[in-house]
What we know:
The structure is a homodimer. The first copy, chain A, is an alpha+beta fold. Chain A is 50% helix and 12% strand.
Amino acid sequence: MGPVPRTLELFYDVLSPYSWLGFEILCRYQNIWNINLQLRPSFIGGIMKDSGNKAPALIPRKAQYMANDIKVLRQHVQVPIQFPKDFFSVILEKGSLSAMRFLTAVNLEHPEMLENVSRELWMRIWSRAAEKAGMSAEQAQGLLEKSSTSKVKNQLKETTDAACRYGAFGLPITVAHVDGQTHMVFGSDRMELLAYLLGEKWMGPVPPAVNARL
Amino acid sequence: MGPVPRTLELFYDVLSPYSWLGFEILCRYQNIWNINLQLRPSFIGGIMKDSGNKAPALIPRKAQYMANDIKVLRQHVQVPIQFPKDFFSVILEKGSLSAMRFLTAVNLEHPEMLENVSRELWMRIWSRDEDITQPQSILAAAEKAGMSAEQAQGLLEKSSTSKVKNQLKETTDAACRYGAFGLPITVAHVDGQTHMVFGSDRMELLAYLLGIFCGPGGCLSSPYPQGFQEEVHH
Lengths: 214, 234
């Protein structure tokens, strides 16, 4: 029997573009590194409130930087990500509470579908190319109803609180459990550092043996 | 004659720990990549003011994250960086204006010494928890970098002239025009285009923009150039 896989928890929100990039990179590495990737749908609005931080987009130069950064990362990370036309309406007004409650319900009832459904939601918000996640209409409807139960609302709150206890002031955060220690890294641009903490090899954001999924 | 080196401008302030990390990484790569590294001493206080941003340390969880992050990066980047004991006083009260004016003067008169003197100032504040605001502190850093006492004293006097003050302001304004909301920023001039990257954790992306990154299977993504990776890991 080989060494025990290290648990990596990825706390994310589909409202967060960098969460999508971190998610895709880790999904690619989950079959390359000796890790057990656990997806943790969280609510970025709750993290901002709890930490006293504010969305970077509220600082004009940060919004400008992000817009450009996403363009470059689209090529570098090979994810079809682009800024929605009405960025401020999407990010700052519409928010993501229903979507993240929905993903919480998916995680409770059909965790094997969480990766695909998360990706589908990111595609809708952050890309023009949306596909079907493979969920039947009945399944989706059932989960949508479950999304507004206290059980699901509380689960989302608990996951978000867990991220806060790990020290989150934004998303994505990746928490690596290595040799009895816990390391939290913020952002999608810290995967090389994560590899260092895991003692694994970093091969860039598009490692070989990646499924031609996108 | 080979291809023309690409110009990389590194805007930094010795008050900024991530500036030190970015600086050391780029200094290592300046003789490996086909680049012309231009150091641009800037004033982070001015950038914060102009952009409407605030020092991350003011958010408690960000301060906590930084403290931990710096510990890990110390090993990974192999720079002897550590938090000063009274972090808030050093960063938020004492600041870096005199030090950055001094480095501006160095850059005007003895640019070949800028790298060394910058490093010695970082070593004071971000390695040995020593002052960088008093004249004696700045002179000590300059002398440790190899400057004579007379040279250092002369530059210290020049630091308070309008010429030097204006130069620091101009450099800081240039960073702002590139879109800076903090430091370090690295500006790469590639094939007629300008790319600005923020932070010391974007060097892989910078390599990609410079067309140096090799892609799947092998990449110059380590903060140590290939061949030194064995020394870096824990």
